[in-house]
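A favour between colleagues. Tell me how you read the following sequence-structure pair.

===
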Amino acid sequence: MRTRTFRSLVYFGGGFGLIASFYAAAEIVDAELSKACSFNQYFSCATILESGKTTTLGIPDYAWGIVGFVAILVLGVLAEQRRRDARFTYLLLGLTTAGVALSLYLLYIEVVEIGGICPVCVTAYFFGWLAWGGAIGLALRAYRREHRASDGAGTAA
């Protein structure tokens, strides 16, 4: 795949994940929105919202999503602007990896402890995983670029 494709995955995942996170926040304000994504007792945003288990470390889960997806987009732009400095790419990989870990924890809470699935939340998780895939691709490219440069420098001496 081309680098542009990996960057597109990061931006696409980050952007649509941010939209899903804002929708999850709006459900708190307008209960009608949570009814719109409640299909039955198991696939139900309302079931998850009414569980009382929608905070992690005292922070609402939707806020983790909003802050995380904004950070993904910012780091994606910084990594693109500073292509020769792989640190931003590696930070992006670290952030998206942490996001995937958090989403797996939240999915566990939904399925095992609450006994349901929030379609909006799962949509946000999916887009986070998509951004993670793009970050992995960018990090592998940066790693190869760094090692090609160091191999070339080592043979010239």
